[in-house]
Amino acid sequence: MSSNAAATAPTTGYKVTKSDINQINRRSLFGFQLGWNYERMQGSGQLFVLMPLMRKLYGDHSPELKRMMRMENQFLNTSNFFNNIILGIDVAVQEEEGAAGEETVAGIKTGLMGPLAAVGDSIFGSLLPTIFGALAASMAVEGNPLGVILWTIECVVTGVFRWWLTSVSYRTGVSLVTTMGDRLSALTESAGVLGIFMVGSLIASNINVVFTVNPTVGGAAINLQNTLNTMLPGLLPAAIVGLIYWGLGRKKMTSTIMIFIVLIAAVALSALGIIAKG
């Protein structure tokens, strides 16, 4: 997308206000995780946070609203401390491009949710709670009320930081869409590549399944897993993900049904001695 294209991109005609951003922040702080589920994880939370603004952008019963609702309700799983970065850019793109920015928003969400989850959860989900929680607990055990105050301050500062992130990422997103169209295109493509890279890394590091069956050929037993590792390391995890991806594309197949299929298949193949945990 060139800069000229960005300037002439169709818009909704609605200008996002500070009140809209504040409403998004309130919904994000108190409601982003309420709709968490195994099928779309934070997707319904993302839709809940943005729904009032989207109704202003597209109208209550427009085809564009339905399209964008389906897009926002797609799978999303990131740090609930850094999700405001995605929210801010999402709002900026929709404000400037309307429903025409559907692919851009989807690509940014896919590409950024993995890296933001790693950074946000490491800092705000582990590091800071460990440090301040340990100090607060130690003070509380000794009867020092400063422990409660310290923990309260940590929670409040984190909330303020999340609130601030939305405004900053929104302003950055507007700049990307209106004056740096080429950079937005590059960001979208990079986010897509990064998303694919993250998925590949997760497959290799989190799916620990190996063959335990050792067929005999010409009187000699062959270690099938070692042979595969020599030729194509990680082939079995990649094949499993490929089959799941193919299955999810079938008619009437849902993520919930696929989870049960994987569980049943894993138990059956393990009981038959064909696969085991690596």
Describe the structure in your own words.
This protein is mainly α and 278 residues long. The protein has helices at 3-7, 18-31, 43-58, 63-72, 83-97, 102-141, 146-179, 181-206, 224-231, 235-248, 255-271; strands at 209-211, 216-217, 220-221, 275-277. The longest helix has 40 residues, at 102-141.
Quickly describe the structure.
This protein is mainly alpha-helical and 278 residues long. Helix content is 72%, strand content 4%. α3 (43-58) packs antiparallel against α4 and α6 packs antiparallel against α7 (146-179).
Helix content: over 70%
How confident is the prediction overall: mean pLDDT? 83
Distance between the termini: 45 Å
Shape: globular
Instruction: Report the biggest beta sheet as strand number plus sense, adding barrel if it closes.
Output: 2 strands, antiparallel
> Element order, helices and strands?
HHHHHHHHEEEHHHE
Based on CA atoms alone, the radius of gyration comes out at 23 Å
Poorly predicted regions are 1-9
The strand order across the widest sheet is 1-4
Structural class label: mainly alpha
**Binned strand content:** under 5%
Number of strands: 4
Assembly state of the chains shown = single chain
Number of helices: 11
Write the layout of secondary structure elements.
Elements (H helix, E strand, L loop, with lengths): L2 H5 L10 H14 L11 H16 L4 H10 L10 H15 L4 H40 L4 H34 L1 H26 L2 E3 L4 E2 L2 E2 L2 H8 L3 H14 L6 H17 L3 E3 L1
